[in-house]
Write a structure and sequence with these properties.
Number of strands: 6
Largest sheet: 6 strands, parallel
Shape: globular
Number of domains: 1
Bound molecules: farnesyl diphosphate
CATH architecture: 3-Layer(aba) Sandwich
CATH topology: Undecaprenyl pyrophosphate synthetase
Strand content: 5-15%
């Protein structure tokens, strides 16, 4: 049965996070440069964003460029930055009522790319459907370090007492403070790790791994992952009987 018919539309995960892996290997298999894979991956970003919005997902957070990715060859970094500058298809966001946001260390992003992304954020800000979030120059350790510094500063300034540092207080200082934690984390490309992505936020997320390289990840694959998610029992530390 196609996954479309199997999906329970009343139990769509509110927040899906994706580690878009496999662009480089996809390109290599075809005898191309790695950047060719990123270009194909950018098309998949738009296809999956549109499908997620249609299914009723509220937040889609895509790991686009990690803090560690700055160590990649300069030509590959430049190719990804160029894609961010000229491959974002705002028309698809407008058509699907998608708002666009970024999390990460934007100071590291070249100014022209930053300006172009900021324009897209501004122009889509009043869209009320799904929020598409790109994690750019992002890593969990960077985010938690920044959060810790900020909280320490507030304590030092007397704005916050140590007793007020709770789970909720930390969450409210993270870059993701405008959205709920991911219900479902998908990683494409066959690797089985978190790679410094949303580690605080994924404490209770359901994890889904598939071998498909990101450029080949299509609507049916997303629906398959959601169906798999809907079969899981989320206990959040409780027993089955308590649910
Ligand atoms: C991981 O695959 C992917 C990345 C580091 C880059 C992801 C970037 C995109 C999908 C382009 C985004 C562009 C827009 C416009 C949103 P990898 O290169 O590590 O793959 P490999 O494991 O096969 O080497």
């Amino acid at each position: 049965m196609p996954y479309k018919e199997e999906i329970d539309i009343d139990r769509i995960p509110k927040h899906i996070a994706i580690i878009m892996d496999g662009n480089g290997r996809w390109a290599k298999q075809r005898g191309h440069e790695r950047s060719f894979g990123h270009q194909a991956g950018a098309e998949t970003v738009h296809i999956i964003a549109e499908e997620a919005a249609k299914l009723g997902v509220k937040y889609l957070t895509l790991y686009t460029f990690s803090t560690e990715n700055w160590n990649r060859p300069a030509n590959e970094i430049a190719a990804i930055m160029a894609l961010l500058f000229d491959s974002i298809e705002e028309a698809i966001f407008m058509k699907n009522n998608i708002s666009f946001r970024i999390i990460g260390n934007m100071d590291m992003i070249p100014e022209n790319v930053r300006n172009s992304l900021n324009h897209c954020i501004e122009r889509t800000a009043s869209n009320t459907g799904m929020c598409l979030v790109l994690a750019l120059s992002y890593s969990s350790r960077w985010e938690i370090t920044e959060t810790t510094r900020q909280i320490a500063k507030e304590v030092q300034q007397g704005k916050l007492s140590i007793d007020q540092i709770t789970d909720e207080c930390i969450a409210s200082h993270l870059a993701t403070n405008f959205m709920p934690d991911p219900d479902l984390l998908i990683r494409t490309g066959g690797e089985l790790r978190l790679s410094n992505y949303l580690m605080w936020q994924c404490a209770y997320s359901e994890l889904y791994f598939c071998d498909t390289f990101w450029p080949d990840f299509r609507e049916e694959e997303l629906r398959k992952a959601i169906c798999e998610f809907q079969k899981r029992e989320r206990r959040f530390g409780k027993t089955s009987e308590q649910i």
